[in-house]
Structure formats: structure tokens, C-alpha cells
Design brief:
single chain, alpha/beta, 2-enoyl-CoA Hydratase, Chain A, domain 1, six-stranded mixed beta sheet, two-stranded parallel ribbon, 35% helix, 17% strand, globular
Length: 241
């Protein structure tokens, strides 16, 4: 049987569509803080760690502007942020794996009054995942038997990622459904009602209910808005537990 898997295509399954391009991530030090601009990936993570280690005076803030990235790279970055007790600052947007894993890892979270913290799902919801264009081309070229094997391997990756995600959120003290809540059918009225909806976000109070506290807003109130009218993140309510 042919080698069915293309690792790049698989990794893209767990990234938002806007992160699937070839944007280069920039990592640098400016105005006393670390800057991470672009998709989250392991190469950029290593650049960030090397930069931090090279600085005599260690910065206390990671400022990030990211559409997301592969889930393990996101959790690796979030784990590093928490281990080094960094604050996370978002002036524009932090989406997908950035919202799932990096934002809640900050000791303090600083946001502009329009910053978008946007969610669209996690690795544990296989039935909600869709193939990106590259993976779809691979899938369509396979026989029926090979397609089953292809999806079985994706299911394995999803299951493994879901287990790690659950452990990760437990370590942070964050509710395990923060990355998948909007995929529940009871939220269809909010998410699917808007044809441009790419995902969802939460209010300040609901972030706290989910375990993401210590959020400070620059010039409040916080009124998140999308950078593009064609990609909207709707605010969904969180049930008390």
C-alpha cells in the first residue's frame, strides 16, 4: 500500500484555514517584550526560546498576533509561557491554537479593547473536523480502503491530541471544553446563524467561568471585533458548572 499520510496535510487539519498559507512567523524583541507574529510552529517556538535565553534581562511579556497553528506546537508554546511565568499581550488577534493554548497560559492576559480571542475547535472533536484543500486532494486520490486507513490515522492523531489537551487544560486550571464548546449543537443558533462565522469567543465574565482569569483590558470596555468582515467570531454564553 502507498504511504498514505502527508504530515503537512495532517497538521493543517488542526489549523484554521487562514493559517494554511505560507506566512512566515516573525519572532523578535521590542520595547521590552517578546513579539510573536504569525502562525505558531515549532521552528518559531525554538527561535523564541533562543531569543529569551540570549537576553540578560528577561522580559515578562509575550505579545502575540497569531491565526493559530498545529495543536502540539500551540501547547508547547503555552507550556513554555506558563513555565516562565510570562504575561500574554494581544493587541489584534489570537485565534485557534493561540486562543486555545497560549492565551490562557499567561499569568496575566492583557488585551486591547478590540482584540479578538477566537475559537473554532480542538483536536478531540474529530466529527467536526474538515479536510483542508491539500488533505482533500490526497483523500480523493485514494481507493475506498485507503480512505478508511487515511481517516483512521487522522482519528488516532485527534485522539492523542485530545488526551494531551485535556491534561494541558487541567494543569492550567481551565475547563476542558473551552476549545470545543461552540461546536456543541446547542450553540448552532449563535454560530451557524451567521454565514460568515468562523468560530466563537467569550465575554470577560465567561472567560472567568472557564478558568481564564486575570484579563486586563486597555481602555475598557472590551468589544472584540474581527479584522475581516468575512470572518466573524460570535460571542457565545457559557453555562455555569
Amino acid at each position: 500500500m502507498r504511504n498514505l499520510m502527508c504530515s503537512a496535510a495532517l497538521l493543517a487539519l488542526f489549523s484554521p484555514a487562514m493559517a494554511a498559507g505560507e506566512e512566515t512567523t516573525q519572532v523578535y524583541f521590542s520595547n521590552g517584550q517578546l513579539e510573536y507574529v504569525g502562525p505558531i510552529n515549532q521552528a518559531a517556538n525554538q527561535q523564541l526560546i533562543a531569543l529569551y535565553d540570549s537576553l540578560a534581562a528577561k522580559p515578562a511579556v509575550l505579545s502575540i498576533r497569531s491565526p493559530g497553528g498545529e495543536v502540539n506546537a500551540g501547547m508547547d508554546l503555552g507550556s513554555w509561557v506558563r513555565a516562565h511565568k510570562l504575561n500574554v499581550r494581544v493587541m489584534e488577534f489570537c485565534l485557534s491554537s493561540c486562543a486555545n493554548y497560549v492565551f490562557p497560559a499567561g499569568i496575566e492576559k492583557i488585551v486591547s479593547n478590540f482584540a479578538m480571542i477566537g475559537y473554532h475547535g480542538g483536536p478531540g472533536k474529530l466529527e467536526k473536523l474538515t479536510l483542508d484543500e491539500s488533505a482533500r486532494k490526497i483523500y480523493d486520490a485514494l481507493s475506498a480502503e485507503e480512505q478508511k486507513a487515511f481517516m483512521a490515522q487522522i482519528a488516532g492523531i485527534s485522539s492523542q491530541g485530545g488526551r494531551r489537551e485535556a491534561q494541558y487544560f487541567e494543569q492550567l486550571g481551565v475547563r476542558a471544553d473551552i476549545s470545543s464548546l461552540g461546536q456543541n449543537e446547542r450553540y448552532d443558533q449563535f454560530v451557524k446563524a451567521n454565514p460568515n462565522a468562523a468560530g466563537w469567543t467569550y465575554s470577560l465574565d465567561d472567560f472567568a467561568r472557564l478558568g481564564v482569569r486575570d484579563i486586563s483590558v486597555i481602555n475598557p470596555p472590551w468589544k472584540p471585533r474581527s479584522a475581516s468582515r468575512k470572518m466573524v467570531f460570535v460571542t457565545i454564553p457559557v453555562d455555569r458548572q
